[in-house]
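Morning, I've got a small favour to ask if you have a moment. I've been staring at a protein lately and its backbone has me curious. You're getting the sequence in one-letter code plus the fold written as tokens. I've dropped the whole record in just underneath, so have a look:
=====
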Amino acid sequence: MRNHNILPYTPEARDLSRKLRNSMTKSEGLFWKKTKSSQLGVVMRRQMPILDYVVDFYIKDLGIAIEIDGSSHENNFLEDATRQDRIEELGVTFVRFSNHQIQNNMNEVLAELRELIHDLSD
């Protein structure tokens, strides 16, 4: 199992993460309701600062960043790709789901995450 206990982050990212925890989107709220309290067998953190960014959700013990992409991500594709590349350089695995997937196919999303968690736990 990979150890991702300490990832660098800036004070600005930490401050932003605190603010974002109090203003989750509808999709983030639905996802959090289904994954908090170790419902997937792992500890999930929300709005996790990494470098000078904030990822929507993070599984620290496995180094999995989970992003829920809404319409704002469509306009920021290059920025998101750069952000993802920089974070992946730290050994973090990125998983992206759309708002549509979260709101309409939650069981499939959870099944995909369970499979990834299982694969990375070996």
Q: What stands out?
A: Residues 106-121 form the longest helix (16 residues). Residues 68 and 97 are 5 Å apart (CA to CA). The chain has one domain: 11-121.
